[in-house]
Design goal:
The protein is α/β, with parallel strands linked by helices. The protein has two domains: 276 residues, TIM Barrel; 112 residues, Sulfite Reductase Hemoprotein, domain 1. It has 14 helices and 17 strands. Helix 4 runs parallel beside helix 6 and helix 7 packs across helix 8. The radius of gyration is 24 Å and the shape is elongated. This is 4-hydroxy-3-methylbut-2-en-1-yl diphosphate synthase (flavodoxin). Its EC number is 1.17.7.3. InterPro entries: Dihydropteroate_synth-like_sf (IPR011005), IspG_bac (IPR016425), IspG_bac-typ (IPR004588), IspG_C (IPR058579), IspG_TIM (IPR058578), NO2/SO3_Rdtase_4Fe4S_sf (IPR045854).
């Protein structure tokens, strides 16, 4: 199955929705392969593999899984000569699978050598990620940073200058601490760290432009693990530049903690119009799917009304009226169904990602919520008649009964999509 290009999605009507609080921050537009980041483009969802890049097949498969889940950019680790040599074969495998997601190379200590010694890697990557805090020290840092920027210029590649508080440039930090100590009213240590993060990003971007990299080839990020630190740093950074900004906590954590922390930080910034591409850096549960971070990023943007990716399923939380777990099982089943069907629906139909569904557990709010959704079902609660009315666009259409309600409602959803949304291509 071919994964549609981000540019096709935009041209076919899935434009970024208006931010509830006002307009997006104005930035330059950076092209990463066929994906636009910044300007009026939608906020882009991206993710990163956790496979060994040297394992070409496994890495290509995970890249495809992430892309099919909705990751519009995928980053891979390039840390050894063997990993650099694997990048072009990974790209070839993805092309063979019909997955055209742009690949980003994540470089750190030896990126200057890997890019210079592996031109195929430098050529097929759509963007390079450079951390100015660990490209070297002193004179070597300047030379090695310059070498990576020169290679980006040679191959006309954009660069994300990604500052991380776990690897902050110690010389720059010492300089800012000394400057702060000389002030009549010095700032506290937290403020100094935040200023050092922003200064590192801005000074590195200025150095890259001085070397010859165009300003519309630069994206910035300042990754930290604290919610309040992230909000403060990005507010400052957004006031001081017009580069597109990549948002994300650097180590969000596992499970609900990681989801809540990422959402708490990024939602505030996105509501203020700050942020042009996001990554939710979740630590997967043992054996868990890497694609979870893509789902969380999409749901964050869709819940905020910034983009639409897949039909949203509304379900009540349950109470003493809903002692049966059937409505929970049906809600999960429908959620899984629409996510599994969405890759094909996206190809076949215009606007299906905006559909809303309701799976409700009793008569109190069930019919009302079902009427507000495009399609909804109100299941019987404790002591209610064993009947489940279905509503489509506010009108009651049928009442389901018996042991096959789940299968029948799923079929109704598929039928609703087929007759409601305009087809893009003929069904083969």
């Amino acid at each position: 199955m071919r994964v549609r290009k981000h540019s096709e999605e935009v041209s076919n009507g899935a434009q970024a929705m208006n931010r509830p609080g006002g307009g997006r921050r104005r930035t330059r537009v950076v092209r990463v392969g066929h994906v636009s980041v910044g300007g009026e483009a939608p906020v882009v969802v991206q993710s990163m593999t956790n496979t060994d890049t040297v394992d070409v097949v496994r890495t290509a498969i995970q890249c495809a899984e992430l892309a099919r889940a909705g990751s519009e950019l995928v980053r891979i680790t390039v840390n050894t000569p063997e990993a650099a040599a694997a990048v072009a074969p990974i790209r070839a495998h993805l092309d063979h699978m019909g997955v055209d997601v742009p690949l980003i190379g994540d470089f750190h200590y030896n990126g200057h050598r890997l890019l210079a010694e592996h031109p195929a890697c430098a050529s097929v990557l759509a963007k390079y990620r450079i951390n100015p805090g660990n490209v070297g020290h002193g004179r070597k840092r300047d030379e090695q940073f310059a070498q990576m920027i020169e290679i980006a210029c040679l191959y006309d590649k954009p660069v994300r200058i990604g500052v991380n508080w776990g690897s902050l440039d110690q010389d720059l930090l010492a300089r800012i601490m000394d400057d702060n100590a000389r002030r009549a009213e010095p700032s506290d240590a937290v403020a100094v760290m935040r200023e050092a993060m922003v200064a590192s990003a801005l000074e590195s971007a200025a150095r890259a432009e001085a070397i010859g990299l165009p300003g519309d080839r630069i994206i910035l990020s300042c990754k930290v693990s604290g919610v309040q630190d992230l909000i403060a740093i990005y507010r400052d950074l957004s006031r001081r530049c017009d580069y597109p900004l990549h948002l994300g906590l650097t180590e969000a954590g596992m499970g609900s903690k990681g989801i809540v922390a990422s959402t708490a930080a990024m939602a505030v910034l996105l509501q203020e119009g700050i942020g042009d591409t996001i990554r939710v850096s979740l630590t997967p549960d043992p054996g868990g799917k890497r694609t979870q971070e893509v789902t969380v990023a999409q749901e964050m943007l869709q819940t905020m009304g910034l983009r639409a990716f897949t039909p949203m399923v509304i379900a009540c939380p349950g109470c003493g009226r809903t002692t049966s777990t059937f409505f929970q099982e049906l809600a999960q089943s429908i959620q899984d169904h629409v996510r599994n069907r969405m890759p094909q629906w996206r190809i076949e139909y215009d606007g299906v990602e905006n559909m809303t569904l309701a799976v409700m557990g009793c008569v109190v709010n069930g019919p009302g919520e079902s009427k507000h959704a495009n399609i909804g079902i109100s299941l019987p609660g404790t002591g209610e008649l064993p009947a489940a009315p279905v509503f489509e666009d506010g009108a009651r259409t049928v009442t389901l009964r018996g042991a096959h309600i789940a299968e029948e409602f799923t079929a109704i959803v598929d039928s609703y999509v087929a007759r409601t949304y305009q087809r893009k291509v003929a069904v083969r």
